[in-house]
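User: Need the bound-state model for GMT:
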Amino acid sequence: MTDQPLRIAIVCYSTYGGSGVIAAEIGMGMARRGHQVHFIGTDPPRRFTPMPGAAFHRVEVRDYPVFHYPLYTEALASKMVQVATAESLDILHVHYAAPHATSAFLAAAVLGPRSPGVVTTLHGTDITIIGADPTYTPVTRLSVERSDAVTVPSRFLADATRAVLDLPALDIEVIPNFVDCDRFVPPAERRSGRIRNLFQRFGGPVDEAVAGAPTLVHVSNFRPVKRVQDVLAVYERVNAALPCRLLMIGDGPDRAGVEERVRAQGLEPRVRFLGGQDDLVPLLQDCDVFLLPSETESFGVAALEAMACGVPVVASDVGGLPEMVDDGGSGHLLPCGDVDGMACAVRSLLETPGRRDQAGRQARARAVGHFQDGPLLDAYEACYRRVLMMRDGRAT
Ligand code: GMT
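Assistant: Bound-state model below.
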């Protein structure tokens, strides 16, 4: 099995979240390396583009009048059994514990000795919020500890997992999230005029007074954990001293509230909400600073993608963010909620001559040096082969 092609299933949520992005990139990366890849889910992951060697298998969740809630966990487990049997899977790689690791545990129990090796990648709130909720802790713990291998994107999440699940000796491999540094690149030349065109393209009033001004950017799924009101609070403070623009990319429950605040303050000509976007590169490239004032973040894929495009990051000093952003180099980290401190950090980047560009170069260098896709895909492939060797060892 040392370099034979593998048959790998990948399970993830198909939303805009970073876990779906990373799962899609792992699957497509493995298919490019000659492995047979099978994505299993209710929808294909957003970043997945059909390609040779990669198939998608849809999970149909049955609607039945007796059920109050759809039986996704069971439907997914049954689909895993079906695909594992039909495709003789070697590896079942599930992303996000709830309920993907639980469905994998069920599928492995059904398949017995014919089960593929189960690799679980934990991502964040599957442990820090769902896993920590006593309603779900026992099932999460069992599903995680019965996986053949467990990976996480940061040391922070490894420690949190052992603590939350009360599994102090659990073997967890840290494989950082990654970015394709050939696709996410800085532009040949940064031009703020392109942002002006973008404001026009997405409609709404445009303030010509900021046509050449800097642009702050935020990308997320606008959930409470992202603190999007803090994004706006930081922007308001910077804009009051140094007129600038803000791009808000993504969608989610907290978007309406923050849009309302923008309208109430008459800031629409300087702030654009773009909604969910598939191609982030041309949107990020001409921006000046990426804002991520989250309450917690096991990693922060969107910030890494901005760094690869040469955009420095101002973020909360929480979770796994200090493992990605080197404070004072590729960006600045401030206590969560310190919107004054974050605004000062943004202003220092923008107002000190050459400082933004230097930080942008450091951000790009950090992405290339530590978070390139190639070596981290190697780490996943090595993990798959280790699991298969362990299983072969157990079987003989
Ligand atoms: O756990 C979540 O809240 C959702 C999840 C996702 O699907 O994107 O986000 C987590 O996983 C990402 C990919 O590993 C990380 O970049 C995010 O930091 C992490 N979110 C949190 O820890 C809040």
